[in-house]
């Protein structure tokens, strides 16, 4: 799949797509970025799915300082200014929660339509499959997305058996598990900004 678009398989008009999108990284954390071949039709710098997912993950209460930076400078400072309609839509999905932080401050949480989160995570997984296993065609695989609660137990007892990597300290961490004969990666676990965790199963 190295010389094919990772989303549609086309060999024409190829460019490079960032996995995750470059706009998820503060400028000083843009190292070890992953890119894969993508055709001009499938390539989008930051799609609506990406934007919704970025808003959702950077709005998390326990986000990293990198997430806080993106929220302040890219979401509030740029996206919302550019599109008042987007801001209104996000406001509508804002829910008050009973969660309080260490200082006792109450926070809001934002919801994201499931299908948008799924689209984003499936696209991301296809890119990572091609990055780690260029010989595998990710297009016709099945993908199942689950949101996880990031607990220490999960990280210490399950994910320590997985292979781990990170892109941009405090932005994106991921784990992957191979099947027994090492032929295929069947589980991916992602953490964005240390606050939002997801699992994608591939079959
Ligand atoms: Zn394509």
Element-level helix/strand string = EEHHHEEHEHEEEE
- Strand line-up of the largest beta sheet: 5-9-8-7-6
Q: Mind telling me the C-alpha Rg?
A: 17 Å
Number of helices: 5
| Total number of strands | 9
Query: What is the molecular shape?
Result: globular
Average pLDDT works out at 87
| Bound ligands, each once | zinc ion
Helical residues, percent: 25-40%
Quote the beta fraction.
25-35%
Mind describing the biggest β-sheet? 5 strands, antiparallel
Unreliable parts:
none
Distance between the termini: 18 Å
Structural class: alpha+beta
Description:
- With 203 residues, the protein is an alpha+beta fold.
- The chain has five helices and nine strands, in the order E-E-H-H-H-E-E-H-E-H-E-E-E-E.
- It has helices at residues 48-58, 65-82, 84-93, 114-132, 152-158, and strands at 14-19, 34-39, 94-100, 106-110, 143-148, 163-167, 172-178, 185-192, 196-202.
- Helix 1 crosses helix 2 and helix 2 (65-82) packs across helix 3 (84-93).
- The two termini are 18 Å apart.
- 34% of the residues are buried.
- The structure holds zinc ion.
- Zinc ion (ZN) is lined by residues 5, 7-8, 10, 39, 41-42.
Mind sketching the topology for me?
Elements: E1 14-19, E2 34-39, H1 48-58, H2 65-82, H3 84-93, E3 94-100, E4 106-110, H4 114-132, E5 143-148, H5 152-158, E6 163-167, E7 172-178, E8 185-192, E9 196-202
Antiparallel strand pairs: 1-2, 3-4, 5-9, 6-7, 7-8, 8-9
Helix pairs in contact: 1-2, 1-4, 2-3
This protein binds zinc ion.
Zinc ion binds at residues 5, 7-8, 10, 39, 41-42.
Provide a brief overview of the structure.
This protein is of the alpha+beta class.
